[in-house]
Amino acid sequence: MNDHSDVRENLDAVQAEIAAAEQDAGRNKGSVTLVAVSKTHDGERIRPALEAGHRIFGENRVQEAQGKWPELKEAFDGIELHLIGPLQTNKSDDAIALFDVIESVDRPKLVGALARSMEKLGRHPACFIQVNTGEEDQKAGCLPDDTDALVAQARAAGLNVVGLMCIPPFDQEPSLHFALLADIAKRNELAQLSMGMSGDYETAVTFGATHVRVGTAIFGVRPKPAA
Ligand SMILES: *Cc1c(COP(=O)(O)O)cnc(C)c1O
């Protein structure tokens, strides 16, 4: 029988490591926000994190999130949900209705769809532009060279663009990608950087991450592969 008490211990450990990394980097305590990535895990596995007081979660699929979060939102106040996975334009309304932050804005057509959904629903989630820093064919995100134009377009369309997000290639030194993302954010006067996952979040904090997205280190190995 698994009582899921490991989730609370893992969460405490990750938070302690973030605090240590903030201190090592000479950054203010609490300057890094932990987005607990709960994709593929069910409500029973997520509850211990909520009961421990954690409120900020990341999901990568709209439909999966629609299945489990409405009930958890009923049970716990102040939940902030981040969409961190690729978004199809036909799911734009659903995403805006459910999520508080969209971290995966990556192309002009999606900017247009999100702007229309926001207008229609009267909700204006904060947005990150996702950058494909490794220029990988199979990965979502706009190319580094296209980012300035996409940020400008998103701002002009009325999106509340707060920062940039990246997922470095898994077989490369992540710090190069973190530094590149920080550089692009700086020239676009964007203050927030969502970067760093279970394997590299301490490094990301050193390079200025304001948000780290950590799944496996909190909830354990995912029960099924996530896209
Ligand atoms: C799954 C996922 C994460 C979390 O990855 P872990 O290695 O399990 O910490 C972070 N960001 C995105 C975009 C993801 O899809």
What's a concise summary of this model?
The protein has 227 residues and is an alpha/beta fold. It has helices spanning 5-24, 43-51, 62-75, 92-98, 108-121, 147-156, 174-187, 201-206, 216-219; strands at residues 33-37, 56-59, 80-83, 101-105, 126-131, 160-166, 192-194, 211-214.
**SSE string:** HEHEHEHEHEHEHEHEH
Structural class: alpha/beta
Q: Which CATH C-level class is it?
A: Alpha Beta
Q: Remind me, CATH topology? A: TIM Barrel
How are strands sequenced across the largest beta sheet? Answer: 7-6-5-4-3-2-1-8
Strand content: 15-25%
- Low-confidence regions: none
The main β sheet shows up as: 8 strands, parallel
Q: What small ligands are held by the chains?
A: pyridoxal-5'-phosphate
Number of helical regions:
9
Based on DSSP secondary structure assignment, what is the total number of beta strands?
A: 8
Under the CATH scheme, the architecture is Alpha-Beta Barrel
Considering the protein shown, what is the CATH homologous superfamily? Alanine racemase
The residue fraction in helices comes out at: 40-55%
Mean pLDDT, all residues: 96
Query: What is the alpha-carbon Rg in Å?
Result: 17 Å
Number of domain units:
1
Distance between the termini: 28 Å
Coarse shape: globular
